Amino acid sequence: MDLNYSPEELAFRDEARTWLAANLPADLKQKVERYEHLSKEDLLRWHRILADKGWVAPAWPKEWGGTGWNVVQRYIFEEELGYVGGPPLIPFGLTMCAPVLLQFGTDAQKKKFLPRIFQGKDFWCQGYSEPGSGSDLASLKTKAVRKDNFYSVSGQKIWTTLAHYADWIFCLVRTDSGEKRQEGISFLLIDMKTPGITIRPLILMDGAHEVNEVFFDDVKVPAENLVHQEGKGWTVAKYLLGYERMNTGRIGASKRELEKVKEFAKDVADPRFRDRLSRLEVELMALEITNLRFLDRMRRTGQPPGADVSMLKIKGTEIQQGLTELALDAMDPTANDEFSVALRKRYLSMRKTTIYAGSNEIQRNIISKMTLGL
Amino acid sequence: MNFDYNEEQQLLADSLRRYLQAQYSFEQRRKALDGSPEVWAKFAEMGLLALPLSPDYGGFGGGAVDLMAIMEAFGEALVVEPYLATLMASRLVARAGTAAQKPALLPAVAEGRMKLAFAHTEGGARYDLAAVRCTAKKAGGHWLIEGEKKAVQGAPVADKLVVSARTAEGVALFLTDPVKAPTRRSLDGFPEADLVFSGAKAEALSGGLAEIEETVDFATALICAEAVGAMKFSCDATLEYLKTRKQFGVPIGTFQALQHRIVEMYIAHEQAKSMACLACSTMDFSENSKDRARAISAAKIKIADAARHVSQEAVQLHGGMGMSEEMKVSHAFRRLTVLARQFGDADHHLARFGAL
C-alpha cells in the first residue's frame, strides 16, 4: 500500500495540468470562477479546444478518438479538468449517448453520430424524466408507435437539461404497454428540429434557465434511430447507469472551490466556522481516497465498478452543497456585488445535485439492494 | 498508487484472523480480559510482537502499513491485550533509548518475554501532549520521578515503564520499574492503572516531546485501523440482524427507514477505511512532520465522527439487544467510544488540523 502516485502518474498529471492551464481561455476561466452564465458557445469553445488536442473523450476506444489511458490516468485527467476551472464538458453526448452507441449502436449509427459528438458539432440532451416518472423511471408514458419505417412519438419529457441548446435528444419511450413495464421501453435518438417538438423553459429558484419541458406531438422518427432492439431500452438505460456512476464525485472541481472558499473566508475569525471548513476538507479527502480505492480495485480486477460506487455520488454532491453553504456563511451578509449575488444563487442552484442523476435516496436504495443484499 | 496489502501482510493478517476466530471468540475473550499468557505467546509466535521492531533487535522492521491489517483484525475481534501499550513504549525506546537500553529491552519484547507501558497521561492534561507536571530530578547516576500518571494502559501487566517527566530542559523520557497500583478498567475493558511516583528511581532516555509526538501520531494511525475493524464488525453484525430479525411478519431489513441508515453506516465505514489508509501510508512515506500531522489529524477527525455514527446506529438498529451486555455489538460500542477519543477527539484534531 502506497497512496502516492507513481513518478509516471505524477508526470502525466503535471503534463495535463500544464497544458490545461495554458489552453483554457482566460475569459472562460473567469466566468466559471465567478459563477457567471455560460452560453452554448462558451461550452462548445472549451469542448472544441479539448477535441483538437484529442483529449475530449479519453474513455472512448482509440479508433473513435479515445486516448488509450488507463482508469487511473483517466481519473487524474478528470480531476485536472475540474481543477483548472473550465466550463463543464456536457455529458449527454460524450459520456452518455456515445458509450451507449459504442455498446449497442449499429455501425451506421456510430459513424453518423460519434465523430460529430467528438467534434462538438451536435449538442445532445437526455430525455428520461417525465412529469409522472422521476425516480420511478420505468413508469414512463411517452409513446412511440411503429408505422412502416418510422416511429411516431407523442408525450412529454421534463427537467431536460439544456434542451434549448440541443440538436439531438436521446429518449426512453414506451413501444409496448404489456405486462412487464420494463420490457416495453425503447431507446430512440431524435433530431430536435423534427416538426412536433416544443420546448418550454422551466426557470429554477436561482432564476436560471437550464432545464426545460419538451413536448412531442406526433414526432416522426426514422426507425434507423432505434438503438439496440425494440423493447430493450431498459437494458440500455441500466448499462448507462453503471457507466456514469463512476464520475460523479467531481473532486477536482470541489478542490478548486474549497481553495476559493478558504481564500474568501480568510477574514472569518470564528473558530466554529474554521472547524466546519476543516470537516468539509476532511470529507473531501476521504472522498478522494475512496474514489482512488475504487479505481485501484477496477484496475486490479478488470471488473466494472460495483453498485457501491453510488456512495461517490452521495458524498460528492453533499460536499458540493456544503461548499456553497460555507461560502454563503463566509460572505458579508450586506454584500451586494456581482460575485456575492452569484454565490447566493449558487447555493440555491446546487440543491439540485442531490436530486438529479438518481436522487441520493435512490443511490441509497441501490447500495442497500445491490451491495448489502437487503 | 496502490491500496493492496502485499502477500506477506495479507498472509499474516489471514493467519491472525483464523487464530482469533478459533481461539478468541467473544466468549473466550471474556475470560481473557486481564491479559492471557497463551494469547501473548501466540502473538510472539506469529511474529506480531517482533513486527514493529528493528531487525537489529530481533524485529522485522514493520511500518504502519504492515501493522494496519493486524490492527483491523484486532478491532474486529475487540482484542484486549497490551499490544499498543507495548508497541508505543518500545518505539520510544527504539527511537530515544541508549545503546545499553535497546539491547536490554527490545529483543525481550520481540520474543514476548517482556511487556512495556507508556506512562504519560496526567489528570487534566486532556489531549495536550506537552502538559506534563511529573518531574525528574538528577540524583547521582540516576533520576528520581515525582508525580502522578492517570489511566496508564497496560500498566498492571508491564515489566518496565517508559515515563514522561519534566526536567529543567523540558519534557524528557525515562525508564522505570513498574509501580504497584490497583487495576482499573477502561470503558472498553482494558486493564490500566493510576500510578503514583514518589521518588521512583529511573534512567534517562535521550528524547523528549518530539519523540512523544511522533509515537502518538504513529499510534493514532494504528487505532484508526483498529476502529475500522470494530466498525466493520458493527456494520456486518447489524446487517445480519436486519436480515434475520422479523417484525410485522417480515425481516426488518425490508424497511426503507432502516435500509438507508445501514447504508450510511456502510459509507461511514468505507470513508473511515480510506482515511486509515491515508494515515498509515503517510506515516510510512512522509518525512515531513507537518504533512504527517495533517494526515493523522484529518484521519482522526473522520474516524472519530464515523466511530460515533456507526457505533450509535449499530446499537439503535439492534433495538434492545444492542443494549445487552451479552451482545458483542454493545462491546464494540464501548471500544469505538474509547477509540473515538483516544489520542484526541474530533474537536482536538479539528483545532490541530485548522492550525496547520
Explained architecture:
The complex is a heterodimer of chains A (374) and B (356). Chain A has helices spanning 7-23, 26-33, 40-53, 71-84, 91-104, 107-119, 233-244, 251-264, 271-301, 310-330, 338-349, 360-371, and strands spanning 124-127, 143-147, 150-157, 168-174, 185-191, 197-203, 209-222, 226-227. Chain A is an alpha+beta fold. In chain A, strands 1-4-5-8 form a four-stranded mixed beta sheet. In chain A, helix 5 packs antiparallel against helix 6 (107-119) and helix 5 (91-104) crosses helix 7 (233-244). Chain A is globular. In chain A, 38% of the residues are buried. The mean pLDDT of chain A is 95. Chain B starts with 6 loop residues before the first helix and ends with a helix. Chain B is of the alpha+beta class. In chain B, the strands form two sheets. In chain B, strands 1, 2, 3, 4, 5, 6 and 7 form a seven-stranded mixed beta sheet that branches. The radius of gyration of chain B is 21 Å and the shape is globular. In chain B, helix 7 (209-244) packs antiparallel against helix 11 and helix 9 packs antiparallel against helix 11. In chain B, 54% of the residues lie in helices and 17% in strands. In chain B, a hairpin with a 2-residue loop joins strand 2 (135-139) and strand 3 (142-153). Classes of the chains: A alpha+beta (374), B alpha+beta (356). The interface between A and B is large, with 40 and 43 residues.
